[in-house]
Amino acid sequence: MLHTVDLDKSLDKDEYRRKLLENQVELRRLALELYKQRRSLIVVYEGWDASGKGGNIRRVSEKLDPRGYQVYSIGPPKGDDQTHHYLWRFWRRLLPPDEKQILIFDRSWYGRVLVERVEGLATETEWMRAYHEINDFERQLNDSGIMIIKFWVHISQDEQLRRFEARSNTPYKAWKLTEDDWRNREKWELYEEAASEMLVRTSTLKAPWVVVEGNDKYYARVKVLKQLVQLLDEELTNR
Fold it and tell me: Which CATH superfamily is domain 2-237 in?
């Protein structure tokens, strides 16, 4: 399904700045309403290496009250996380209920059906079972009143290569590029297959996936903000 995504969508700088600020201000207003209604929102980011997830998250959180949101950057499990079920480290970040109204995950529990699947860190039985486990996990969160939205930031192979090369040639960005990034790139087709199956099997009415056209970072940032504003406006206004 990812082959059908139109990656030519873009915004010019003036339009980007106008729409960015407009949606950031509206998101801040809705975040306050979220606090007043004692509701919570979970935002999940997945996507290709160098797809711009970090910059996107910074624009989402830029105008928010820092007392009301938390960003979790998720890497390989370490310490106690390695000795528990893979969802345990996410449950413990959510329970008891966090004081933050908005929780943003830069990578998430979907690692089970992405990197762990492709790299052989989970057996086929384990990652196939994970689709049901994850849907049930998110359903329980929904049942407790938590809203969930998930973004897959999609870029082309050519655009990823351009960004990799730009990072390697920019001293203050070179640290972001690792051998694992180049190695993962060689498995593009396997990751694309895993991502496509994940999107189909785990996008639900209450926890939808939104594919974000990411070749143009301006367009991607505005699209995510607009989706968040739309979700919160519908949920908080129609409650």
Answer: P-loop containing nucleotide triphosphate hydrolases (3.40.50.300)
